[in-house]
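Next up, a specimen:

>
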Amino acid sequence: MREELEAVLSAHRVTPLPDGVDRASACDPELPSAEIVGWATLVAAGVPLSATEQDRLADTAANAFALIALLPVGARPYFARLGLIATLASALAVGAPAPR
């Protein structure tokens, strides 16, 4: 699963923000893309998340796909990938011991 997360993160890093989505809306707190990618990068590197971070990532993963239907059709694959990143990272983070 870690390899899949790394592959999806790599694809995300080279994919530009879709047309019709401005940077301000991509940083909207309803879909915290920077947090998702940040947590996922840590998890992929084997860095354990705190219990609070694991909970926030799990919540984000659970809600990530809910907003996709509200986005322009052309932007949906980009944000679906973010949802996949959040889901994979959350699954991996749960199996890792949290720092004390």
Summary: The longest helix spans residues 76-95. The CA atoms of residues 8 and 24 lie 23 Å apart. The two ends are 25 Å apart (CA to CA). The chain has a mean pLDDT of 84.
